[in-house]
UniProtKB/TrEMBL annotation:
Keywords: Membrane, Signal, Transmembrane, Transmembrane helix. Coiled coil: none annotated. This is DUF4142 domain-containing protein. The lineage of its organism: Bacteria, Bacillati, Actinomycetota, Actinomycetes, Micromonosporales. The keyword Endoplasmic reticulum does not apply.
Amino acid sequence: MVARAALAGLVIAVLGLPAPALAQPAAPAQLGAADLALLNGVRLAGLWEMPAGQMAAERGSLARVRQVGAEIASQHAELDQLVVDAANTLGVQLPTEPNADQKKWLNEMRSASSDREFDRIFVDRLRAAHGKIFPVIGAVRSGTRNEVVRKLAQDSNGFVMNHMTLLESTGLVRYAELPPAALPGDQPKIDSLQEAALARTAAGSGFSPTAIWLVVLVALLFGAVATYRLVRPR
């Protein structure tokens, strides 16, 4: 359970969803927080990437940017219908407008001083967004208990991979500025006993922080008794 909660927190953080904005199921449907976060994330992606793609189709300075924009807008309309159908099946209410960051990105595109600058913003913003959600979709696909969410994650994976390929085909992706890849096993160094205990619990190791602290306290107690026997007057 703790591991699932940790995964849900990661999904919510990566997608940029404030906790209160998460959709809630109208009835029990074997959904976890990560499932709901994916439903929200896919819906939010469509709400801003469809208008972004439409803008690119009309304003792009390069023919390839115009083609990619039109294709992404069209594919997101299809993906949006898939997530709406999934949400209706599960009794989940979805967002109806982009979040604050996504609105800011759309405004950046509208405010571009030239069509060439628009191309750069369009590709930068969409490629970064797809790169962030891509590993999250895989995590939900591999861990969800819900068949409808699993199918949506699998479909979304294909769309996102295709969109990254389309954006990269413009020749405008600045790979050196993308966040470095992180392997699933990469973890920060853990120095304290308490952090180690929490990490083991989150990983489902079966050890709790309370149990580990009890072991430490018992060891200290035995150490104190042994020391007293050595130094007490004979």
